[in-house]
């Protein structure tokens, strides 16, 4: 099994079976571009939940999901 690079909308997976989306993110609280931007456009409520989580510094740190 190798790595397949697929260009498209991350919120519209292509093909059959399970998917892994590898990406990086920052903690700048922007949530408007890249994978985060695609998610925000498709599911706007996620952006608000992320901003609320980011505001709670006690629970927002490296490694948290």
Structural account:
The chain has 65 residues and is mainly α. It has a domain at 24-65. It is 32% helix and 0% strand. The chain has helices at 34-42, 44-55. α1 crosses α2 (44-55). The model has no long low-confidence stretch (mean pLDDT 83).
Chart the SSEs and their pairings.
Blueprint: H1 34-42, H2 44-55
Helix pairs in contact: 1-2
Low-confidence parts: none
Overall residue-averaged pLDDT value: 83
Identify the overall geometry: globular
Distance between the termini: 28 Å
Q: What profile does the largest beta sheet have?
A: none
The ordered H/E elements are HH
Q: Roughly what percent helix?
A: 25-40%
Radius of gyration: 14 Å
User: What class, by secondary structure content?
Assistant: mainly alpha
Q: Could you provide a short overview of the structure?
A:
With 65 residues, the chain is mostly helical. The protein has 2 helices and no strands.
Give me some keywords for this one:
mainly alpha
